[in-house]
Amino acid sequence: MADPLRALRTSLAEQLAALRDVPVAALPAPLVDIEVRRKDMAGVGAYVVRPADWEALRAEEGAAGRPVPWWARLWSSGRALAAALAASPPRGRVLELGCGLALPSIVAALAGAEVLATDGATDAVAFAAHGLALNDVEAEVAHVDWATHGDALAARGPWDVVLAADVLYTGANVEAASRLLPRLLAPGGELRLADPGRAGARDFLAAARGTFWIRTERVGDVALHVLRRRAR
Hints:
By secondary structure, the protein is an alpha/beta fold. Helix content is about 45%, strand content about 30%. The chain has nine helices and nine strands.
């Protein structure tokens, strides 16, 4: 796989450099030192592109004064949500918020859904786009900051399914999600939320119970919540 991986690395580096508005040579080495991993879930095989050494990338970005690249790890919530989607494929228009490496979006696209994968980190958007392309599926990716781009995102909706894996880790995210998520769902649509037990998720769900019917199941240390709007 050496030649395909080299081509993938070159394409990814060019897009990352364009998004950062720097020469390719100025990119941190751990960002473009990538690996491809296959994940098998409920009979679905998906490939993910990710930095090979997350700790090295974190150290490099920290030294440069850039945010911690939380997006660059395949967290347990993303894996659990992707596995749930493989077992119960989504249909129609699907939006993923805070997609990171976009494994749930990849699984949804493999099932034939019309997918928009979004993240607030432009580096994540580049990795998500290349992951989707590697799996030979058509999907759209976009840089979306909830506070700045919420109205524009809502205008592109509504969506039949909204996906989110471990996105409620700050109070600001909880407030933004509470305002934005009801505007994104189509009538009869659902939010599939995966969370490792953060206080922010508990606060969000408590506020949502008056508006949404909520079903929850646990997979290891991850809670999988499905929210559907209650009938008026």
